[in-house]
Amino acid sequence: xxxxxxxxxxxxxxxxxxxxxxxxxxxxxxxxxxxxxxxxxxxxxxxxxxxxxxxxxxxxxxxxxxxxxxxxxxxxxxxxxxxxxxxxxxxxxxxxxxxxxxxxxxxxxxx
Length: 111
Fold this sequence. Notes:
Low-confidence stretches: none
Structural class: mainly alpha
Largest sheet: none
Number of helices: 6
Shape: globular
């Protein structure tokens, strides 16, 4: 049997912290998850890595545990600096009245 500690020591601290967060998500222990996410922040795990882990958790552990994990992550990491893309697109501005834009887009494939 391999020694898990020696195997983990071959990984960089950020990766180890991320793996520990993943196991805490799967266990569903909110206090342990909060502690491990705080350690991951201290280990400089990029926010993108953590958010990708959370998205992948949806497939692996299911919606309830992932939802809990997202909530804990928002508490630990704070609000998102810039969320998503701006929904106001300039493409349609003035080309056709809003009530008829669906008609314009459907046959031409553009807006």
